[in-house]
Amino acid sequence: MPKSFSARIFVALIVIAGFFVLGNSALNVRHMPTVRSVAFLVVACLAARLKIKLPGLPGTMSVNLPFILLAAAQMNTAEALAVGFISSLVQCLAIGKQRINPVHVAFSCCTITLAAVVTRLIYMSPAVTAMVPSPYLRLAIAAAGYFLTNTILVAIVIGLTEAVNIVRTWVEILQLSFPYLVASAGVAALALTITQEIDWQVPLAVLPIMAGIFFSYRRYFSTTTITQSIRTKVQAPSRMTAGAHI
User: How many angstroms separate the Cα of 168 from the Cα of each of 156, 163, 226?
Assistant: First the structure.
């Protein structure tokens, strides 16, 4: 639980809002899950386990975003939120002897749920549809809404918890994850063009692509971490020497 009172209040508000919209969508379900929705959920959970630790930031980033975007575009609200919430829950599951922080899990899942709601509202909005009839361009706009909602909420809670500048934190998150957003939105838009033909096989076709993006990101960040470690070790003796001459 964050030590800052303002951070606690903010986390509580996000968790309450997330569970409210999730519960409201569940109460309005009118039909049983389809094979396609179950397939999306299963593959999104598999993609959620492919997670990367962002350097300098708490938490991880997984490659389940295309499935959340496609669910928001092709399924009803309850199914889309289920894909977002459950895949985020799977992402938060600990590995080995790691401990699970219930507050962190609740905040992460509810943040993704709220971002999925924003995505769904933008994509299905009659006003947006009238201005942007192309479903592919509309999906790109909805993806931007998802990205802004998710990253802004995360930046705020980091800023309140660690007493750092929220705007700078958001810019850092933006720089690290923007290429991933573009790639995810592009993959989702490509899948959207063929979803009517291959139906539930869509997530199975998308998963290998996102796995490739995951391994590329992981290698890049691991190389960056090693480089920073080497620089720190090289600079340390120089700083000690400089201190000795003062």
Answer: 10, 12, 24
